[in-house]
Amino acid sequence: MSTSAKRDLIEEYALVARALGAPHRLLLLEQLAQGERSVEVLASKVGMSVANSSQHLQQLRRAGLVTNRRDGKSVIYRLSDDETLVLMDLLQKHARRNLARVSEILRGLSGGDEAVEPISRAELAQRIAAGSVTLLDMRPADEYRMAHIPGARNAAVNALVRLAGAREQQGEIIAYCRGPYCIEALQAVAVLRNLGISARRMEGGLPEWRAEGREVVASDIE
Amino acid sequence: MSTSAKRDLIEEYALVARALGAPHRLLLLEQLAQGERSVEVLASKVGMSVANSSQHLQQLRRAGLVTNRRDGKSVIYRLSDDETLVLMDLLQKHARRNLARVSEILRGLSGGDEAVEPISRAELAQRIAAGSVTLLDMRPADEYRMAHIPGARNAAVNALVRLAGAREQQGEIIAYCRGPYCIEALQAVAVLRNLGISARRMEGGLPEWRAEGREVVASDIE
DNA sequence: ATATCATTCAAGAGAATCATTGAATGATCT
DNA sequence: AGATCATTCAATGATTCTCTTGAATGATAT
């Protein structure tokens, strides 16, 4: 009995890990880290069919990673826990430390300039308060509109070159995006540094910022 | 290109999670958390064939969770990182918080007495120094022999009742075992409290104790 | 009530994963 | 050099996972 209990427990732990073990589900979680979403929105965001998304979401739910509620005709999913973010982040950190392919890709994305340390969220918050920083939100416009760090400006990687020419310098540039699996901020920093503009990225992303209870605003307030 | 880079990264993160997503592999990791082991020893410990163990170990290696080296005829595997422990632990914590079945099983094992808070390793270390505690190592004898907390006494759950009758009281009893997926310490506490003896378990297990740089000893020194 | 809409369910084809078996490799020991 | 031992490899069937398709459900709105 005790042996089978152990078996059962381990099976459940494995279930959680398995739920994290498919790229599509990680993409769904990344979306959910931005905030709660309906099945339809999630499906279109990650580019898969609604039925397929629904099934993956249910797997995530069985693993206790997300919860759902009905809102009118829609079913809204959300992360069950801010700790889920920690789990996702640990996965990424582990991969970067121990898998050569991962560190290679990341080095490639950051233009070989991997020595650029990210700025901590705490320090960034101070710098924002002091006004000595220009903040770039590198996420899609609709996500920016829903919530972003106060004072941040929305930008796309493609538009950076143009934007850099016209901009008025105001302190160091800090870029951020979705969170653990974000790469746009990395690219942004690479592009800007190539142009001779000093830039860094924020550690983590908006979800982590929010999980720490820091302020975010929606676009119509700005 | 940037999109495919993101795909590749996420695929790697999922690979890590998938490696954690099979009970047999979690058992192997639990063993490895006790210390480095050869393939043969691991196979017999978790009760699977050598060939099968070897394949699972290679999967863990591809995910960067373990490394191996040759030592004479044997290949010795070990956790690649103390952070691997954190990952395993987080999996368990998440499951306990968010999966009803898990908390039920755990409640059953601890005799319904789940309110018994574990003692932190830091506090335990102080209590040991003060001599005001009786320590029980609930792992198999061979693991105890390889390394245990100084002053701990090896015990099996079955032998606890007998042991409790004969024992000389010396402070509170603290039990520990393997680590994140340990249940023996939980059972020990339940048995002892049923006998009216005050007992708690240590938070985490021997691997976490060692990961913090605390002292362990081998049996022949005792 | 009926129509509509978002989501879930059910069934099936295709791919990936798992355990077993027996052979191959690579290092040691005599 | 040959024998021995631990591990890995390769091939096989069994199981499980993934995605698609089309129908079913459940809630709202007219």
List the helices and strands and how they pair.
2 copies of one chain form a homodimer.
Chain A: H1 2-19, H2 23-34, E1 37-38, H3 39-46, H4 50-62, E2 66-71, E3 74-79, H5 83-98, H6 100-109, H7 121-130, E4 133-137, H8 141-146, E5 153-154, H9 160-166, E6 172-176, H10 184-194, E7 199-201, H11 206-211
Helix pairs in contact in A: 2-3, 3-4, 5-6
Chain A binds a DNA duplex (30 and 30 nucleotides) through helix 4.
Structure characteristics:
homodimer; Arc Repressor Mutant, subunit A; 2 domains; 13% strand; Oxidized Rhodanese, domain 1; DNA-binding; four-stranded parallel sheet; 222 residues; alpha/beta
Describe this structure in words.
Two copies of one chain form a homodimer. Chain A is of the alpha/beta class and 222 residues long. The first copy, chain A, has two domains: 2-81, Winged helix-like DNA-binding domain superfamily/Winged helix DNA-binding domain (Arc Repressor Mutant, subunit A), CATH 1.10.10.10; 84-221, Rhodanese-like domain (Oxidized Rhodanese, domain 1, 3-Layer(aba) Sandwich), CATH 3.40.250.10. Chain A has eleven helices and seven strands. Chain A has helices at 2-19, 23-34, 39-46, 50-62, 83-98, 100-109, 121-130, 141-146, 160-166, 184-194, 206-211; strands at residues 37-38, 66-71, 74-79, 133-137, 153-154, 172-176, 199-201. A four-stranded parallel sheet of chain A has the order 5-4-6-7, with helices on both faces. In chain A, helix 10 (184-194) links the parallel strand 6 and strand 7 (199-201). The longest helix of chain A has 18 residues, at 2-19. Chain A is globular. The structure holds a DNA duplex (30 and 30 nucleotides).
